[in-house]
């Protein structure tokens, strides 16, 4: 599309619907994959393996931090990237 031209309201609506559909498709695939990976981590708790409480705590804290980071990425009130204020 040439510079300076704008989309019609119908084109904007269609583009928004396309973005929503793509988000849903990717989110379902990626969350399903993440849940599967987390279940595999949970399998490490079986008697086939031996871990220390410190190892388990480190795994759980790391997973919690990763989820918190994703939550912050979706929170539009939190600025993205490094910032500095006086």
Fill in the keyword field for this structure.
86 residues; mainly alpha; single chain
Summarize the structure.
This protein has helices at 9-42, 53-74. With 86 residues, the protein is mainly alpha-helical.
**How many discrete domains?**
1
Distance N terminus to C terminus? 43 Å
What percentage of amino acids are in beta strands?
under 5%
Strand element count: 0
Order of helices and strands: HH
The number of helical runs is 2
Radius of gyration: 21 Å
User: Largest beta sheet, briefly?
Assistant: none
Structural class: mainly alpha
Q: What's the oligomerization state?
A: single chain
From the spread of the alpha carbons, the general shape counts as elongated
Tell me roughly what share of residues is in helical segments. Answer: 55-70%
List the uncertain runs.
none
Task: Look at the structure and give the mean pLDDT.
Answer: 91
Describe the structure.
The chain has 86 residues and is an all-alpha fold. It has one domain. The protein is 65% helix and 0% strand. The chain has two helices and no strands. It has helices at 9-42, 53-74. The protein is elongated. It starts with 8 loop residues before the first helix and ends in a 12-residue tail after the last helix.
């Amino acid at each position: 599309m040439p510079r300076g031209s704008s989309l019609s309201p119908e084109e904007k609506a269609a583009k928004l619907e396309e973005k929503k559909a793509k988000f849903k498709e990717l989110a379902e695939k990626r969350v399903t994959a993440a849940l599967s990976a987390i279940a595999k981590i949970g399998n490490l708790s079986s008697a086939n393996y031996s871990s220390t409480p410190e190892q388990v705590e480190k795994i759980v804290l790391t997973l919690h931090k990763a989820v918190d980071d994703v939550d912050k990425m979706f929170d539009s009130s939190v600025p993205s990237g490094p910032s500095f204020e006086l």
